[in-house]
User: Fold this.
Amino acid sequence: MLDEKRNSARGNAPVRRLADLDGVLTFRLARLQNRLNAQAAAVLGGLGGPSLTQWRLLTAIHTLGETTLSEIVRELRFDKGQVSRALTAMMGRGWVLARPDPDDQRRQILALTSAGITEHTRLLGPMRARQAALAKSLSGPEQAGLLAGISAIEAALDDP
Amino acid sequence: MLDEKRNSARGNAPVRRLADLDGVLTFRLARLQNRLNAQAAAVLGGLGGPSLTQWRLLTAIHTLGETTLSEIVRELRFDKGQVSRALTAMMGRGWVLARPDPDDQRRQILALTSAGITEHTRLLGPMRARQAALAKSLSGPEQAGLLAGISAIEAALDDP
DNA sequence: ATATGTAAGTTGACCTGTCAACTATATTTG
DNA sequence: CAAATATAGTTGACAGGTCAACTTACATAT
Assistant:
């Protein structure tokens, strides 16, 4: 199709396809990530829900129970400015409540409100369905291998 | 450390750690991706080089030989506005040359200039070294499993 | 031949993420 | 305890990514 035209136009130079790039792990990851994010954002958008970042924060707070901004930053490796602003927005929506930590006045302890929990629950089904659809395309060993590989790389990043 | 304080402050509620989130594939991928991008950008920055996006475009054009904007968009899943602007910048730096496609006047055929190739070559060593350091932390089967997993997910994204 | 539809690329408006500076509070050390 | 150092969180400035509209050119079907 396109390639024929291109090749003929330039005298049949050998076309090195992106298969070469495919060997390069970080490229593959970047492309995959772009696609997954776009898909997730589309699902959330279709539900009239929050941004992907807000969804992740909703999930993080839900998972961690009570937490603080900097714990989220450490665990998720998000930028603290970004998290600060996103949390402000989420408090504006009534999803998150911050109360001062009596033991450390720099801290605010974050928790989901019941509205936040409701919203999280509402979105969880479709998001899980999406995840399950992806997971289904992998065999058990493939899934395990993928997660193991991710863990190994992250461990390598922790060293130096 | 932190957790003790937090727990005692709120009455030893069980702390569900992010280990729970770790099961969620897309979270793991997102976090990994964040860290890898930050590392790559740091390496490029240290070399006085281009942005990560420009580096990827440099590599893509180098790999594809001659190509077009929309082919890059299709293969890499970048936004075409983003690519258009990045290419303008790279032409300004003299790394990329665009010439009209005689067969299709909408198209511009992109190629690296010799300065572009030089720049790509200069950065390739350190970037490969980084990649090799990461790859070294994985066994052969782990690497293969990781790439297979990525491919399987991308295949699943192609279906629906 | 012309109308209709689709692809390539550019641009502007907007949104999100990133970096650095800053305030306020804790912690550590001499 | 005072001084120095480190951490929590906010903010402003900016770079970068995203979305949609638009122009031009090609393709297809009457």
